[in-house]
Design a protein that fits this description.
The protein has one helix and nine strands. By secondary structure, it is mainly beta. The protein is elongated.
Length: about 110
């Protein structure tokens, strides 16, 4: 991001709250780009002793992963993961437990599984 989405002035890096942030160069605007991680939900789908893994067309041939997707506005993580399971594999899921939250720094995401 190079320009302020509020006033179109250039953004410049500044130390703010102990972090380097992109801040609007206009003295009257005050916009700060925090670059917070996007929440992603992931489902570990088990049937007996097997786990369902999925593939993405864009992944290398031998890569597999969990059903996952971005959390929608106004959605709880539980609602989001059940929606993703229905959309991606056509199954009706059931929440058994929360596994954990995992930062994925390379993609600026936090994965809620």
């Amino acid at each position: 991001m190079k320009f302020c989405p509020s006033c179109a002035s250039p953004l410049s890096p500044r130390e703010l709250e102990g972090h380097t942030r992109l801040v609007c160069s206009s003295e009257t605007c005050g916009y700060v780009f925090y670059d917070n991680p996007a929440p992603v939900v992931a489902a570990l789908i088990e049937h007996g002793e097997t786990v369902l893994l999925v593939r993405n067309k864009g992944w290398p041939e031998k890569w597999y992963g969990l059903v996952s997707g971005f959390l929608e506005k106004g959605e709880s993580p539980e609602q989001g993961v059940l929606r993703e399971v229905k959309e991606e594999v056509g199954l009706k899921g059931e929440i058994v437990s929360f596994i954990g939250a995992y930062p994925f720094h390379e993609m600026n995401q936090i994965i809620l599984a």
